[in-house]
Protein: Inner-membrane translocator
Amino acid sequence: MSTVTRPGDSAPASSPTTSAPKPRRPRWLALPLIVVGILLLVSVPFWVAPYPVLLLSRILSFALLVISVDLLTGYTGLPTLGQVAYFGAGAYTAGLVGIHLSTNAFLQLLLGTLVAAALALVTGAVAVRTNGFVFLMVTLAITELANRQADSMTAVTGGSNGLSGIPAVTLTPGGEPLRLAGLVYFWVLFVFLIGLALAIVLVRSPLGRSMRGVRDAESRLHALGQRSYPVKLMAYTFAGAIAGMAGTAWTAQARFFSPGDMAFSLAAIALLSVVLGGAGTLWGPILAAAIVIFIRDYVGAMVNGHGATILGLLFVVAVFALPRGIAGLVRRRRGPTLAVAGEGDAGVEGAK
Structure:
């Protein structure tokens, strides 16, 4: 006997329009992978030659910078080219503290992070009043101004010659300087893990949920009487602090910093690393950062300095082959993708 459904009646429970939620993998399954990953990173200096260890130190420093870009681009919907300004602020602060005040690594980390956060707070107060392409251009201007300022302050930063003579960091007052590549790597790894942990706490906090609300439907927040400006400013300041931490780690392993280390090219590959890895995730951009630095610094040296060309081709291919980034290969649910051109409410739209 057929069943007649009136217009006002609800659809039966067995209706094909009703889809059961997909089973999600238990979160505890990720814990063993995280532990194994950390143990592998800790063990690297014991079975890898010094140069690859130094390369991995650069990768971890750059990955922390990429995380700061992802917090704005992927989680808040604010594609940015300005994080290298705060990266440079942290790096120069750590270097100057090491030369003139103390070689203590913890003090350099603290002061570098605070200076970068303060600079992000001041500049972000203006920058986050914009959205989309305008915001991208404002952050690019911040990067260029910071680069020009570092280049012109020769008495402080060394100008175009760079800040050299930075002593090796120490962990305790009067302690032995960390000169060996493996020891420096352990410090950089420590800074990276602290920065990553802070980023994870942020994105899972109420502020992180508000950031995603700004990204997905800022106009709805306004309609509900909620202001998005404080959320964006706090996210911008926090991301600036993470970038400053990355700068202190970079100085600790390189013991040299110049305006060229905070140029537009670094800002561009940091943003493209987020796109390549998958905006709105953390592990995807970290993996992409490792690929980018490996190609730029290692593969590029093997092909007569054509690493930038290889990176350019990689990014072009990734735009078409991986529209949701590396993370999109394993994430079957909808994920955010970067929307740079135009000024939408979110700045980051769901993949279609």
Q: What stands out?
A: Confidence is low (pLDDT under 50) at residues 1-21, 334-352.
